[in-house]
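During the second year of the project, the team shifted from modelling isolated chains to modelling whole assemblies. The rationale, set out in the original proposal, was that interfaces cannot be judged from single-chain predictions alone. As a representative example for this report, we include one of the complexes processed in the last quarter. Its constituent sequences, exactly as entered into the pipeline, are reproduced here:
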Amino acid sequence: MAVVGEAAGLAGLHVRPALRDRLDLPRRVVFLAAASMVAIVFVLLGFIAWQGVQLFVQNGYPIGSVISTTWSPQDAPISFGVLPFVAGTIGVTGVAVLISAPLSIGLALFLSEVAPRWARAVVQPALEIFVGIPSVVWGWLGLTILVPFLRTNLNGLGFTLGFSWFAGSLVLSIMILPTITTITYDAFRAVPQDLRTGSLALGTTRWQTIRHILLPAARAGTLTAIVLGLTRAAGEALAVQMVIGNRPTMPTSLTQPMTTLTSQITLDMGNTVFGAPDNNVLWTMGLILLAISMIAVLLIRKLNRSGGRR
Amino acid sequence: MSAPSQARGALRGTSGRTIVADRAATVVLWALGGFVLLLLGAIILHFVIASIGVVSPSFIFGDPSDTELGGVGPLLWNSVYMLVLAMLIAVPLGILAGIYMSEYAGDNRVTDTIRFAEEAISSVPSIVVGLFGLIAFVNLTHWGFTALGGALALTLFNLPLMARLSEQALRAVPADERSASLALGATKWQTIRHVVLPLAIPGIVTGIILTAGRVFGEAAALLFTAGLSTPTGYNFGNLNIFDPKSPWSPFRPATTLSVYIWKTNSEGLSQFAAQIGDGASALLLGSVLIFNLGARFLGRILTRRLTAA
Amino acid sequence: MTIGIRRFGVLAMAATLAIAACSSAATTPPAASSASSAAPAGGSFAAPACASGTITAVGSTALQPLVDAAGKAYVAACPAATVTVNGGGSGTGLTQVASGAANIGDSDVTAESKLATPDAATLVDHPVAKQGWIVVANKDVTGVTNLTTDQNKQIWTGAVTNWKQVGGPDLPIVLILRPTSSGTRATFKQIVLGGASEANGQALTEDSNGAVTTSVQATPGSISVIGFAYYQGTAKANLVGFQLDGVDATVANMASGVYKLNAVGHMYTKGQPTGLTKAFLDYMLSDAVQKGLIPAQFYAPVNP
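Output from the structure prediction step:
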């Protein structure tokens, strides 16, 4: 086989495929298919950005008007402050990642360093099934199990209503667990085996090797995983909306209701008319969400580049 | 304390504490593995118990009702229908894009841009995709809420995923196979078409099924595109796809099972809202399990077939 | 299955005859067409005047059950017609009817209150039913059966924060609000609160009748407002419903006008309706709907 391969390499030199391939039809077709994704991004960004600025363009609100903590789209004085939603999104995702990241990294370590073959063969498919559980199902579980549990059993801690920041974060943390775990796992697997054996040969324990060799070596991958988890959590809509209570004020306590960008969009989109200020502000929120996810993509690229080459 | 670890300790002068830390870490990591399994087991068990007395053939195939338990038949049908519609667009396009990325793309700015676009679309929150669909496929087209609009929104998610999974499957085909084919005088496209693609099929099929599972569960992007209606009395004998009454028509609102769970919680008039929610969730979870196991099973069989041939 | 399809075919034939008799779609249909009198949904009422075609009604989730039921009954009597009914909210309904994406926009509130004047001016209002709401509380709120408008105002604006201040148990009041854009909230605010703003401090926001009902049942000391249709069966048993100013929240009291927490449900068309849209709206105002479906669905006729 290898000999044939070499021969083909030589033969390839003679037919000069580069020029012909450049002109052939299949190449154009597959290129168009791939390029369609670029077109989609441009159209999507364009539409959302256009509609997202209509509050300022069409309705004439100054840009500064949304930078306020007061959400009062109906009662005078009318104020479209989106800060409660931005803060809520940041808060609920931040806490979710704080819960999820240590668990996920530990789980990835288990799969990559500790688990015998049989254990991996059981846990990995389980994780894949987790990825596939639809977000409405998580929301449904949160609403019917978690919220009542918090209210009745942890009422003393301040969960007077059950609907809370913490409930949202907990649901999210489980939802992003497989995402962070799989990517971190890949990062650990990518660390050369030599580093491990070398370290162990020096007489260190497995945990020391993990702490001092593996974790630093897989840092970029781990960070990528966390950023991806953050993005997924920030964009999650229905599961969160069902359990956080949607109180449109700045978040105050983990045990109390709060709100997010996504949940306000789902609450108000149907009741407002396209083009009205209270509808356009929802598009502004959508634009903010889109900006968050684009920033995350850029961040991940940067992380990968710094992790890949050094 | 075992002999090897004692020896290790002696070599490096490792104190007892490091060894305890190592043991503790091992225990914690095992516990995490166990935790995930327990959690999944508990969730599955919960739905199995909750679906007793709810999920029956009449629930799976029956029409929804406000006065009795009713069923989710039309919604399940819509989920499958939208899935097929979305995959009809996403699969060919995704495979073609995957072929480009794996076989043609050079290390240049164009490739970089496409790769960036791929990553960007996959990270757009589903609700934002729904908003985009609302402008593009509902308002601008004047279609109103339609299955086609929903399917197009779903395609947006699937396309990058499908492209990436096909690319991975194609890249996994050994370079020797390509060289051999080219050496025999085949053109690049013939090589891709007759050598590389067939070898990548198991991977691509797995990719299709995994992508499909994701579509099945999606709700946020469909709220604003495929609509919220309560369909009943589908007549599958009506094959006229331009008749909005026909369940085969893409130009009709199509509430899916996952959207229905959402709707049941928010606007369900039924006394049985909780049971319907549990039953529908159990069905959805069951479908996801089937998709997942199906992907593994089919992938394995295809690999065996094709590599043996 | 085959039998179902065959019967469907027979109905379709009957309808074709009806349409032939009806002079075709666009012009005003004659008062009655006897061909479809065999249709099941008509009951003892006169059969609807049939028109053929396809229409979509989108909007208010509060009106959706009624429009849905009426649509199904109409189509059962007139199989050549397709009436698609979608939820999505009053705002969506008005947007889509104004832009032409839907034939009918269902709304809990007037178009003028949502749309800019030029858009609202192109829409024609068809009031079809009265919908009522009831103030409900969690089951643990005992000893209170009536709340006056004043007491409601104090509770919802946050002046009163404990049930004992209105004669109930010593229990903090938890407000479960609708989103600010909701028609229910707007109606309640106008009729009961006299325009005063709700307190946000100890409140939850849930977007719809179902979610509100679930939350009130589950949250101690909570109070909210739900549509009559949702205050039935198990929900009725698991909630405390209040009189308003001593008046029972019943369909009869709403119909006679003594129960004031109600509003007219609107179906909007862009310009004057024609064809099937007109036929369907006429059907909405016919006795079959006004005296048959409407009371059965816990609404009240729009014209007493």
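The interface with chain A takes residues 61, 87-92, 94-95, 98-99, 114-116, 172, 174, 179-183, 186, 197, 200-201, 203-207, 211, 214-215, 218-219 of chain C (CB under 8 Å). Residues 1-42 of chain C have pLDDT under 50 and may be disordered.
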